[in-house]
Amino acid sequence: MATTAGDVAEAPPMSMKVTAAEDEQQRQLKKGIAELYDESSGMWEDIWGEHMHHGFYDSDTVVELADHRAAQIRMIEQALRFASVSDDPVKKPKSIVDVGCGIGGSSRYLARKYGAECHGITLSPVQAERAQALAAAQGLADKVSFQVADALSQPFPDGKFDLVWSMESGEHMPDKLKFVSELARVAAPGATIIIVTWCHRNLSPTEKSLRPEEEKLLNKICSSFYLPAWCSTADYVKLLESLSLQDIKTADWSGNVAPFWPAVIKTALSWKGITSLLRSGWKSIRGAMVMPLMIEGFKKDIIKFSIITCKKPE
User: Fold this and answer.
1) pLDDT bucket at 7, cuts 50 / 70 / 90
2) Helix/strand number for the chain, H first, E second
3) Pick the residue with more confidence: 17 or 38?
4) Which domain of life is it from (predicted)?
5) What are the residues facing 252 on neighbouring strands?
6) Rounded to an integer, what distance in angstroms lies between the CA atom of residue 114 and that of residue 135?
7) DSSP string across 110-145
């Protein structure tokens, strides 16, 4: 179910001011993220293909492994539809940034769909190199480019892109205000911003934090997936409102991604999955070990798979 900005009212969780200790913590976090994806991206591509994100499924649908790659494309299309991104030749995006691009699956798909130029950024040198190689192999080297860069300090001028795309990278961002501020900064006037990310549940008006057992579960996931503190969808809305962004919409797609993690676990337990994990290294193995906690978090309504979209004022 979609909601608009007026439906939620919680305070933003973070500011852009950081201490020296927090700065060092963020540096170590980014190093861990880069190493995790340097290590695991080849394994993921080998088993799941070029899209490193959830698939979008009809609720309560039983699916086979062959359906999952189509579901990942459907996730992209559903996000574009939810944000009302136009296919009109005059209004369609012409310049796109993919923030946290993985090996470039979304970048290449969007560039091909819209005939647009797309720039992808990632913390992982291995991902950037592989993304560029795939672009060349698919005849998109003149449309798509990739580089190692920090989403919290993007190497782009103000107002460059008319579609700002973040598919499952926001959960890695240690400073959510700085993250959305950068998304807004590089967005052109009138641009659409799409954030698809993992959140924790919205707090009730009487709550100041999650319950201790909920925090404990999320902290276990954080330590293996190199995630900072989680925030809610409502927190994102407040941050976007604070930047005067418009047409803010959200939806909870948790039910639509429910088949994803069981399928990932099933592939991880296959012979190909086990041998790939062992070759990849300890960070990938640690990530695999907490995958059942993602299922538990979704089932207990602690974890939410959220889409948040908005527009930059003209």
Assistant:
1) very low
2) 11, 8
3) 38
4) Eukaryota
5) 306
6) 15
7) HHHHHT-EEEEEES-HHHHHHHHHHHHHTT-TTTEE
